Amino acid sequence: MAGTHDAVEVIIAKRDGGTLSTSQIDWMVDAYTRGAVADEQMSSLAMAILLNGMDRREIADWTAAMIASGERMDFSSLSRPTADKHSTGGVGDKITLPLAPLVAACGVAVPQLSGRGLGHTGGTLDKLESIPGWRALLSNEEMLAQLEGTGAVICAAGEGLAPADKKLYALRDVTGTVEAIPLIASSIMSKKIAEGTGALVLDVKVGSGAFMKSVDRARELAEVMVALGKDAGVNTVALLTDMDTPLGFTAGNAIEVTESIEVLAGGGPADVVELTVALAREMLAAAGRPDIDPAQKLADGSAMDAWRSMISAQGGDPSAVLPVARESHVVVAPADGVLTRLDAMAVGLAAWRLGAGRARKEDPVQAGAGVVWHARPGDTVTAGAPLFTLLTDTPERFDRALASLEGGYDVAAPGTAHESRPLVIDRVG
Ligand code: URA
Q1: 309 CB within 6 A, ligand 1
Q2: Closest Cα to atom 6 of ligand 1
Q3: At 313, which helix (H) or strand (E)?
Q4: Do 270 and 391 reside in the same domain of the chain?
Q5: Checking DSSP bridges between strand 337-342 and strand 235-242, what pairing results, if any?
Q6: 306 and 375 in a common domain
Q7: Which residue range forms the structural domain that includes residue 297?
Q8: Does 57 reside within a domain?
Q9: What is the pLDDT of residues 299-316, one digit of tens each?
Q10: Residue 2 pLDDT
């Protein structure tokens, strides 16, 4: 039971570089969730945390207080082990779409509670909602039944799961306090621990298109999250993966679903396949099934069968033709040469400005909008040949999208050698 404190006293303690007690943290998170601490007080504390940090005990207490603000789910009645994956957010990051059915096809259930996109990073639910009929909202009973049957579910987190995080995340988003490691780690891990997964693989993105711009910061975030998961009895590992360059060849909604289906059909971009299989191996190992080879389940069509069953179970038509944007605009390569840089942030912003993402959480997204790039770093390009195709229903958006792509890519002289860093940079676990 939290003692009674005073919000100003807690804010001043953190402002002056102090350490908050368990009782102060429990009280503050609970009082904020109930509305007894005002938004301006919590945003002031969030800024003090961003500037002065928190030690591991404070982060663990903050996470526990956010879990205690809502319900906890329980999958222990399922006949198979559970594993989930969480990405800290990237551009073109459609990995959840092929990954969840792939791991389900390997016999491990995947309870994937996902979000909608905000800002330049896309949201898994927005992508799946481009499939006619598909619905993101499931009751806990529907979710359990689908996990027992199909083995994979991707749906919206219910209102009851870590409500403190929902309120705090929305506040951080408009107060410049998203990028604090204690706040990101507790936000992600409170939801994943409350969700009740047995194993968790974190995909911590590093680079221009990610919250964490440097490998050192990403490793610190990964270490904090892995420790929080393990302490809560969730078998947790993290991969640090590149997000200087966007994944695959598409950023948007329907176009990312199409690319994911190509992967499930045994094709698709090499980097998307590589990361999907790497994360699947980690999830299977963490769930106690290191003996199963996910690459084989992609090749033999069983992952595709699981995808079709997962989409149908949520009302979607897996054979439906997906929405296509009404307008397109092609950007051509300025010269013959080699593409040496494709900036994830520039592409993410362009897709967002074309209507694939939203500026406010109540805004609609366009299913067909987004960016297709026709070359990846290291590829040869030809003067006048398409380099990007911009897609939208609202052509007045092209100018601002083109402005965000400007300076977002480099074409070097023909024959220039190009070496990018590996996609999987490190592992923490
Ligand atoms: N994703 C989350 O769920 N929370 C954060 O704070 C950042 C990314």
Answers
A1: no
A2: 184
A3: helix 302-313
A4: no
A5: unpaired
A6: no
A7: 83-158+190-313
A8: no
A9: 999 999 999 999 999 999
A10: 55
Can you say whether the dihedral through the CA atoms of 110, 279, 368, 171 is positive or negative? positive
Is 37 contained in some domain? no
Q: Tell me how far apart the alpha carbons of residues 154 and 85 are, in angstroms, rounded to a whole number.
A: 11
With a 6 A CB cut-off, is 90 part of the ligand 1 pocket? no
Cα-based angle 223, 273, 353 (whole degrees, multiple of 5): 80
Residue 348's CATH number: 3.90.1170.30
Of 124, 165, 181, 187, best ligand 1 pocket probe by most atoms within 8 Å of the beta carbon: 187
| Pair 114, 202 in one domain | yes
How confident is the model over 82-116, as pLDDT tens digits? 999 999 989 999 999 999 999 999 999 999 998 77
Give the strand pairing for 424-428 and 235-242.
antiparallel
122 with 214, same domain: the answer is: yes
Ligand 1 nearest atom to the CA of residue 188, by list position: 3
- Residue 360's pLDDT is 77
Q: How many domains does the chain have?
A: 2
Establish if 67 belongs to a structural domain.
no
Q: How far is CA 294 from CA 103, 234, 414, in A?
A: 7, 22, 38
Q: Looking at the structure, do residues 237 and 129 belong to the same domain, yes or no?
A: yes
247 and 381 both lie in a single domain:
no
Q: Per-residue pLDDT tens for 224-279?
A: 999 999 999 999 999 999 999 999 999 999 999 999 999 999 999 999 999 999 99
Which residue's CA is the nearest one to ligand 1's atom 3?
188
Share of the chain above pLDDT 70, in %: 99
In this structure, is residue 59 part of a structural domain?
no
Which residues are CB-neighbours of 334 under 8 A, at least 6 positions away?
A: 383, 411
Q: Is the pTM of this model over 0.70?
A: yes
Residue that is last in its domain, among 313, 343, 378: 313
Q: How far is CA 76 from the centre of its chain?
A: 25
What CATH number did the domain enclosing 293 receive?
Answer: 3.40.1030.10
Catalytic residues: 86, 165, 172, 187, 191
Residue 161: CB within 6 Å of ligand 1? no
Ligand 1 atom having least distance to the Cα of 88: 8
Average of per-residue pLDDT values in the chain: 95
Q: How many CB atoms lie within 10 A of CB 97?
A: 26
215 and 115, same domain (yes or no): yes
pLDDT tens-digit profile of 10-67? 999 999 999 999 999 999 999 999 999 999 999 999 999 999 999 999 999 999 999 9
Check whether residue 147 and residue 198 sit in a common domain.
Answer: yes
